[in-house]
Write a structure and sequence with these properties.
Keywords: Membrane, Transmembrane, Transmembrane helix. By secondary structure, the protein is mostly helical. It is built from 21 helices and no strands.
């Protein structure tokens, strides 16, 4: 019987490689700067004489402004192209993050973190759209999984730099913010080499021919329905991610009485699990489908919750947190490809970022809910009773949704602006 030779993987061109690397580094630096605050807000509280309750507003304002950044930079990117808005965005949040090192008081730092949220909101959607538009269609799942792990890499880098700076220098929390400028500048230099998205250029040509604007596309009923669905889905996804991450360092230190250094080492371990998960589940989604892989990750994650939340020994805590982040971020590794594929080509700069960040904003209620449950019961109880329904919600919402795994962005761009075109 004749056999069919396996299809060779399409290698990346230098242009595609630079685009993907810039997106990965940009998301890494966003996460790095965000988690710096999570790691040092107690130190900042002492320096500025501000309560820990007030200090939580530093992360709250960042999360609140991320949808604003996604909307502003996304609209700009759909009208003017991906390249220039991304360059401006990286330069903007690099400068703002660096200035945090010199904040003279809490009020100034709060304003800087608010501005940083705008930059952080613009980065993910634009970077993901540009990267996914440039990489080969048949390898989109793999690069989606790797790209999303920039978030875990940023957390990992923040933990590692925190250990180095606090143990080897007397720079304190200001040194962490100052350090963030260096890798951010590297990201900017790489991104300057990236050319405009050919898919966007073709889409714009079709829109001009039909005298259509990105805003008109956003107002379509089918697009609005898809927007609402994806915001709900991303709320569940962000709740799953933040629900297993944000309160967990406090659980390790306050609930299990581990030392701060031990807690940071555990954070490094479970972020390694996150990186492994995205790198594994992303490629699997290209073969078996986006929805199936996400649902499987949720099904695997449910029986891991007791190991993750109820373990008390160091070894079991490391194992439980590693496996939990492997499946959580494994599911997340599908998202860059999944959201861009479900986005109308005319507003692919706006749509993924806005749905992601609006979901993230709603999910921000997770932390106070978990903290309240931990105070009235225990951290283990808070993690368990909140994560079980969230895993179920992510699985159910994904299963009853749609996917567009094999969509060809170039062919889709050629049809952009057609009255008959619908969201896949």
């Amino acid at each position: 019987m004749p056999t069919t030779a396996p299809r060779a993987r399409t290698p990346l061109t230098p242009e595609q490689r630079a685009s993907f690397t810039a997106a990965l580094l940009g998301w890494t630096m966003d996460a790095f700067d965000y988690f710096i605050v999570v790691l040092v807000y107690a130190d900042i509280s002492k320096d500025f004489g501000v309560s820990l309750t007030d200090m939580t507003f530093l992360t709250t304002v960042t999360l609140a402004m991320r949808p604003v950044g996604a909307f502003l930079f996304g609209m700009w990117a759909d009208r003017a192209g991906r390249r220039i808005p991304l360059l401006v965005d990286v330069a903007f949040y690099s400068v703002v993050g660096f200035l945090c090192a010199f904040a003279p008081n809490y009020s100034v730092l709060l304003v800087l973190r608010l501005l940083y949220g705008i930059g952080m909101g613009g980065e993910w959607g634009l970077g993901a759209a540009l990267a996914m538009e440039k990489v080969p269609t048949e390898r989109r799942g793999f690069f989606s999984g790797v790209l999303q792990q920039g978030y875990a890499l940023g957390y990992l880098l923040a933990a590692a730099v925190y250990l180095l700076i606090t143990n080897l220098t007397d720079w304190g929390w200001r040194g962490l913010f100052a350090f963030s400028l260096l890798p951010a500048l590297v990201t900017l230099l790489i991104r300057m080499r990236v050319k405009e998205s050919e898919v966007w250029e073709r889409t714009q040509a079709r829109l001009r021919d039909r005298n259509r604007s990105p805003l008109a596309v956003l107002k379509r009923k089918d697009v609005l329905r898809r927007l609402v669905y994806l915001v709900i889905l991303m709320t569940a996804f962000n709740w799953m991610s933040h629900g297993t991450q944000d309160i967990y360092p406090t659980f390790l230190k306050e609930g299990l009485k581990f030392s701060p250094n031990t807690a940071l080492v555990i954070a490094i371990i479970y972020n390694c699990g996150a990186i492994c998960g995205g790198s594994l589940f992303g490629p699997l989604s290209q073969r078996f489908g986006r929805r199936i892989v996400i649902v499987v990750a949720c099904v695997i994650g449910l029986p891991l919750i007791p190991i993750f939340a109820l373990s008390t020994s160091l070894g079991m805590v490391c194992l439980g947190s590693f496996l939990m982040q492997l499946v959580v971020q494994g599911a997340w590794g599908v998202i860059p490809a999944h959201l861009t594929e479900l986005s109308p080509p005319e507003i692919r700069g706006l749509f993924p970022g806005v749905t992601y960040q609006l979901g993230n904003l709603i999910a921000a209620f997770n932390l106070p809910i978990q903290q309240s449950l931990a105070k009235s019961h225990s951290y283990a109880f808070a993690l368990t009773v909140t994560m079980i329904p969230v895993f179920v919600a992510v699985g159910v919402l994904t299963w009853f949704g749609k996917e567009a795994r094999h969509v060809d962005f170039a062919a889709e761009a050629a049809a952009a602006g057609s009255e008959r075109q619908t969201v896949p």
